[in-house]
Amino acid sequence: MSIWFKPYKLEDLTTRIGMAEHLGIEFTELGPDYLRGRMPVTDRTHQPDGILHGGASVALAETLGSYAAMLTTDPSKYRCLGQEINANHIRGVASGFVIGTARPVHLGRRSHVWEIRITDERDKLVCISRLTMAVIEIDQKA
């Protein structure tokens, strides 16, 4: 059973704005209860010593979790806004891609909690993140 508000297709999703575009994040798979994407590990996402910057991992996690949260709600009635994110960085990566998968831990009426696992191309855990989203009703009078 799908958790999405409507039957979205991968082609419906875009990362061609803001930080996601700058970092090269792209969505790669939309499953019945997860959203997957990847980000290149290059000079753009490195820290000074040549490995993936933790902030870039967090940006990937928040992009995936925030977008997934939006896909579960009626966009004419609700906005999903990040409240808190944490991340544990497990392994360094110097090149290639990192792949993130966002899955819900809790989908409530007013808040969501998402877990985002980020792995390298060999499926080794690089970072695990938890994102809390506020689900805010849009003021219909505005």
From TrEMBL:
SUPFAM superfamilies: Thioesterase/thiol ester dehydrase-isomerase (SSF54637). This is PaaI family thioesterase. GO terms for molecular function: hydrolase activity. The keyword Hydrolase applies. Keywords: Hydrolase. Residues 50-127 form the Thioesterase domain. It comes from the Bacteria. Belongs to the thioesterase PaaI family. Its EC number is 3.1.2.-. InterPro entries: HotDog_dom_sf, PAAI_dom, Thioestr_dom. PANTHER family: 1,4-DIHYDROXY-2-NAPHTHOYL-COA THIOESTERASE 1.
